Structures are given as C-alpha cells and as structure tokens.
TrEMBL record:
Keywords: Aminotransferase, Pyridoxal phosphate, Transferase. It holds the Pfam family Aminotran_3. Belongs to the class-III pyridoxal-phosphate-dependent aminotransferase family. It comes from Tistlia consotensis USBA 355. This is Adenosylmethionine-8-amino-7-oxononanoate aminotransferase.
Amino acid sequence: PEDAAAPLGANAVAELEALATRHLVQPWESLEHLGQEARTLLTGAEGVYVRDARGNRLIDGPAGMWCMQVGYGRRAIAEAMAEQAMSMAYNSPWYSTSPVAAELAARIAEMTPGDLDHVFFTTGGSTAVDSALRFVQFFNNYLGRPEKKIILSRGGAYHGSTYLSASCSGKERDKVYLDFAKDLVVHLSAPNPYRRPEGMSVEGFCDFLIEEMEAKILELGPERVAAFIAEPILASGGVLMPPPGYHRRAQALCRKYDILTISDEVVTAFGRLGHWFASEAVFGITPDIVTFAKGVTSGYVPLGGFAISRAVVEQVAGPENKGSVYSNGYTYSGHPVSCAAALANIRIIEQEGLLEHVREIAPYFQARLRELEALPLVGEVRGLGLMACVDCVADKQSKNPLALDKEVGGRIDAHCQELGLVVRPIYNMCVMSPPLIIEKPEIDRLVEILRQGIERTQDDLEREGLW
Ligand code: PMP
C-alpha cells in the first residue's frame, strides 16, 4: 500500500537526524562537514518509490545503489527470508551447506556463460571481487608461478572497498589519503569514447585501447600478468560504454597471453541490461570469472559471489593436486537467509518477465533521456538497458567537466529530490538506473523532473556567476 509509511512528526525527524549526524559514519563521509548535515532520512519504500521522513514520495532513480531490481515491498521475498530465518537462520559453511545455497549455486551456474559452473558466495560486491582476485592469486601460486600476480584494471573503474578490490578501482580522487596494493595493480586508460583524444574516431580509440593493453602486457611481461578485471560498462565511473568490439578484443589478448579475465557484473547482472548476465549476451565474451552482488537479492539482504570456469578450477582440483586449498571464506558465505531471498527474487524476475520487460522498455528510457542533450549544461547522455548517465559540461565544445567545487551532480540531485526524484550524483554526472519494474509514465516523470533539476541548477550557476 502506498501509505504504508506514515510521515514522522517534525520533532521525531529532527531528533533522528541529530542522532544520525552525531553517530553515523556513512560511506564516503565528508568529515569536513561531519555533524552538520544528515543524509536524506528515508522511512518507507514501495515499488519504484522511496518515501522520506517528511512523507514525500520520490522516484528511486538509482534503484538504491543499482540494486533494487524488482522494486520495494515484495512480500514474497520478505516471506522467503522469514521462513528461512525460522527454519534455519544460519549454517556454518565450514562443515555444512543448505538447500537454498545448493539451489542458488546451481541456478547461477546455469545463468552464467560457458563452463562457469562453480559458484562461491560472499557478503557483497567488494568481497566478491576480492575473493575472485584471491582465487587468481592462489591459482598461480599453487601452480608454481608466484611471479604471475599483476592485475590489469582501468581508469574510472570501481570494484569495491576492500583493500584489494579498492586497489583495482581507478578513481584518483579516492586514492589521496588511503594506501593501496600498488605493486599488484596496473591501470590502463578509461574506455571513455566521449572523452577520447581529439581527432580520433571511435574505432581508432578502440585500436588505441587494445594496443595500449598489449603494450602494457609486453612491458610488464606476460608471465607476470595474472588477470584483467573489467566491468562490462563502468558503472560508478559514469556509465562508460567501451567502444564496440573492445571486450572481445581484450579477451582475445588475455587468451593469447594466458591471462585470466574477470568480468565484474556486480551492476550489470540480474536484469539491468535485460539479461541474467551481460558478458556473453550483450558483449559476446565468456570470461573465466564473473562476479555478482546487488541485483541477486534486489538488495533485500546482502549477498555476492563469483562464478568460475570449470576448466580453470580443474587445473588445481582433484586428488593429483595435493594440498590445494583455496584459503578464503566468510562466516556468512552462502548465508541461507540471503540465498532464500535470492531465489525468491529470481522467481519474481522470471514470473513477471522482467528481463523481457527491460529489453522492451530500455529503448524508450534511453531515448527519453537523450532528449536532455538539448540542454546547454548537458554534454552527453549515454547508457544501455536501464543504466544511463547525464554528463554535464562547462561547454559542449571543450567537453570539460564542470569544476568539482561547483558540485553540479549534487546540486541537480538536491533540486530533483525537492521535485520527487532521487539522482545518483557523481561529480559532474547524474546516474540513472531505476528498478527494472519501471513503466513509461514513471520514466516520463523521471525525465521531466531531471530536466527541471538541470534547468534550475543552470539558473543557480548563472546567478552565482559560476557558468
Ligand atoms: N563492483 C562494482 C562494479 C560495483 O559497482 C560495486 C559497488 N557499487 C562493487 C563492485 C562493490 O560492491 P559492494 O558495495 O556490494 O561491496
């Protein structure tokens, strides 16, 4: 029901906001502003909407953090979790497993491309990436080639917040005050066709990226390069879509030099691009490892993991491989409540034909958003499936992102939240990745509010003499 979440009284809201500002440390917390401002206090959610503590209903533009696939308020998922919690809330993965973990592993093995038949469960996306990278490390060390451990990643990538996954992330701004495994990770250029070198065609840019990758492999020595990790579409980097053919050519290079490929599908799997997994269906590649999280449970409860190729596992498995132990695991690996939620979530996606729905409605979503390119502040709108990014620029000619101190994405989000839409601001960009159940009227409303938010921001910038 729409009114399930009654607004809180003004005093209660003020009190809760004060508690949050005083005690909560949130992701990417600005300590400079600690204690000054609470994040939006949400108290309810239904379908594609969230509701703030003051009773305002907002379209959830980024689907939480790219995770709320089937929409909020799904009783079937809540009941599956409750039933599992009552029958067996937990089992130790050290000596046991559960029917739901077994069934989910089998389902995911079926959904993933090629021979990716073995599934390892973690607690989220960062731990999925970390565990996949740890497997690669273990694999090469066990096979007696300990020098083969460099991971190739890309600028603009985001792979998580554990030490190793964060080391693979490619955003410079996040690296100022933290240390990283610099000896293990080498970054290639961001595959961002919009900001490719001037005068270069998109095809030429693809050649450039692949040539750069091969040159780097040869410079490092193929015997030292263990893996290439790539999001099919760089999500938090601003929905960067590599040029056509890039993934296939990158995979061919990896095969040539005996480098394992990891497709980080934490965002792109479970329907975001209209398929269970996008690597093969959309990009024509069969990686050795695929990571997943977020959409596997529609964010109802944390879960992540990776699926890995049988051919890779077989090289280190079996009685002839004495002492072969993959020493990596979590108390909550294959948590039964998470697995039950995932199975219920997958049933909803199937029963409601949500993969087909995304394939049908995505062209409309993308076309409507592209209309915003007519606005002076908008340099490019790009995306695929139900993933899109509005990239704001100082002027369309130079494509220069607006100076960060103007916080254009944040300003647009603030206006949009007043108008009834949550935006995911990233520097000068606004990301949109709504729940998969979104319909045309809600897309129309989303685009209309975003347009107004951008126009109001433009007015503000002009008034303040910033633009
Ligand atoms: N990989 C990708 C591609 C992601 O977008 C994210 C999170 N946004 C992660 C990994 C990390 O996932 P989590 O936040 O669940 O640890």
